[in-house]
Amino acid sequence: MNHLSALLFIHKFDFDYLLTRLLRSETIAAMNTIVNVLRIFVEINIKSMKAVIPDLATFNKFELVLTFIFGCISIVFSIVDFNHFYDSYNYPYLLQWNNQELYGIPRWKRIICTTSGIISFTGVLSVVLTTKMKYSLYFWGVINSMAFGIFAMAYGYGGDAQMNIIVFVPAQYIGMYYWDDTMLPSSGNLQVKKLTLQQFLLIICFGVAITVAFYYEIPKFTAAILGFYHKSH
After folding, report:
1. Cβ atoms 135, 45 nearer than 8 A
2. Rg of the Cα atoms in the chain
3. What is the largest CA-CA distance in the chain?
4. Could you tell me the pTM of the whole model?
5. CA dihedral (21, 26, 29, 34) positive or negative
6. Could you give the CA distance from residue 112 to residue 116 in angstroms, rounded to a whole number?
7. pLDDT tens-digit profile of 180-199?
8. Where in the chain are the domains?
9. Residue 106: is it exposed, middle or buried by C-beta count within 10 angstroms (0-12/13-18/19+)?
């Protein structure tokens, strides 16, 4: 019995030892993967930030003037309440901040509302840079998607919030990661691939399934987070 017990003990010891080594190696592999992902994340963000000035430098004078004018207009519209000019009774103040305070909108919402100009400007700038095939489009795209997602969630638009934060933000980083792989070195143009019929049908089916799922999920998610759901018509 003692001999048998010793064999069982050795067998159990070896199993525990191997299991420990396996778990340790899996943990190390997982940690290395996380470190590599974080390294790539930092690198592509730095690359997009470094591309901002060179990409804006490719704008001609007319484009720069239009960009500057649109930026100024966006900032003005995020501060000034133009409802005041034709309905001063309900909007007695010139500034949106004061009118929103009058109607009892919380301070944190009013602060987020002031970012609407930045949201508008970064969105347009990202689209313009997309037409020019410039890498910094992702820098502005990330800012736009994050800011608009927060803005939409604050005002009860759960669908827009999820679309921007869950879909658009990751899409920006996917684009950054694969940017060099899709560029043609000879011409500097993006390489576009055509979907097969099977891929096209798969995307259609996936889109329908996601649409149905979000139809029921968005109201419940928004109500659970904010306590209310603002249904747009």
Report:
1. no
2. 26
3. 98
4. 0.77
5. negative
6. 8
7. 766 655 555 666 677 788 88
8. 1-50
9. exposed
Residues in contact with 40: Cβ distance below 8 Å, sequence separation at least 6, in sequence order = 177
Residue with tokens 């690359």: 47
Q: Residue 104 class from Cβ within 10 Å (0-12 exposed, 13-18 middle, 19+ buried)?
A: exposed
Place of tokens 């420990």: 20
Q: 67-91 pLDDT, tens per residue?
A: 899 989 988 988 999 988 988 888 9
Question: What are the DSSP calls for the chain, one per residue?
Answer: -HHHHHHHHHHHHHHHHHHHHHHHHHHHHHHHHHHHHHHHHHHHHHHHHHTHHHHHTTS-HHHHHHHHHHHHHHHHHHHB-GGGGT-TTT--SSBHHHHHHHTT--HHHHHHHTTHHHHHHHHHHHHHHHHTT-TTHHHHHHHHHHHHHHHHHHTT-HHHHHIIIIIIHHHHHHHHHHHHHHB-TTT-PBP--PPPHHHHHHHHHHHHHHHHHHHHHHHHHHHHHHS------
User: Is the CB of residue 70 less than 8 Å from the CB of residue 124?
Assistant: yes
Alpha-carbon gap, residue 71 to 166, rounded angstroms: 27
Distance CA 170, CA 43 (A): 16
Q: What letter represents residue 29's amino acid?
A: A
pLDDT at 4: 46
Alpha-carbon distance of 95 to 78, in angstroms, equals: 9
Q: Does position 101 have pLDDT exceeding 50, yes or no?
A: yes
